[in-house]
Specification:
Layout: H1 8-15, H2 23-31, H3 49-64, H4 68-80, H5 85-94, H6 97-104, H7 110-118, E1 122-124, E2 127-128, E3 141-144, H8 152-159, E4 170-173, E5 178-181, H9 196-203
Antiparallel strand pairs: 1-2, 1-3, 3-5, 4-5
Length: 205
């Protein structure tokens, strides 16, 4: 299955949430707060437990831009780690390079951040890394390459950040367009829009 490249607003309406963090999508959801399609506004039956579990998995996959095999690999890795599998899964996804680039504010969306990484605009500890799924470690420094510092898409995105970055596990230096990975995100700092327990239940069957 190929990565979804269609209208993101359609997917956001399906889940009833702006899972992509795009301001334009938020405005669309305000106007159309119902699922897409001709029956979008009709009453629907209560979904089964399996349907709810599958929906949550799909929501996470779309949000982080992963294929099924990629997502499954992260889940299996999370299972082998100490602690709660669901929390481990979210931590691993948040530690991906494309996600950190997005969280640091170098891109407005994860898909845009993935494109920056693919096009070799970022370095990790001074070395070019063009693998979006690269998992960062504590102490790693992500920086925009010198040749890429004048990119409008990066500057426009960074300008939206007022004051210090409000993410405890990352530290941003706007002047040098760099950010450091300070710590593995704690449970309370993880995205609360996902019910990871449903995903764990789905894969545990």
């Amino acid at each position: 299955m190929a990565r979804y490249t269609g209208p993101k607003a359609k997917i956001a309406r399906k889940f009833g949430e702006n899972i992509f963090g795009n301001e334009k999508i938020s405005k669309i959801l305000e106007r159309k707060n119902y699922p897409p399609g001709q029956h979008g506004q009709s009453r629907r039956r209560r979904p089964s437990n399996y349907a709810m579990q599958l929906r949550e998995k799909q929501k996470m996959k779309y949000a982080y831009g992963l294929l099924e095999r990629q997502f499954r690999n992260f889940f299996e890795k999370a299972e082998k780690m100490q602690g709660e599998t669901g929390v481990n899964l979210l931590q691993l996804l948040e530690c991906r390079l494309d996600n950190v680039v997005y969280r640091l504010g170098f891109a407005n969306t994860r898909s845009s951040a993935r494109q920056l990484v693919n096009h070799r605009h970022l370095t990790v500890n001074g070395k070019i890394v063009n693998i979006p799924s690269y998992v960062l470690k504590v102490g790693d420094v992500v920086q925009v390459r010198d040749k890429s510092r004048k990119l409008t898409v990066i500057h426009d995105s960074v300008k939206r950040i007022r004051g210090d970055l409000d993410i405890p596990w990352l530290k941003l230096d706007k002047g040098s367009l760099s950010g450091s990975f300070e710590q593995i995100p704690e449970r309370e700092h993880l995205d609360s829009m996902f019910n990871v327990q449903l995903v764990v239940e789905l894969y545990s069957k």
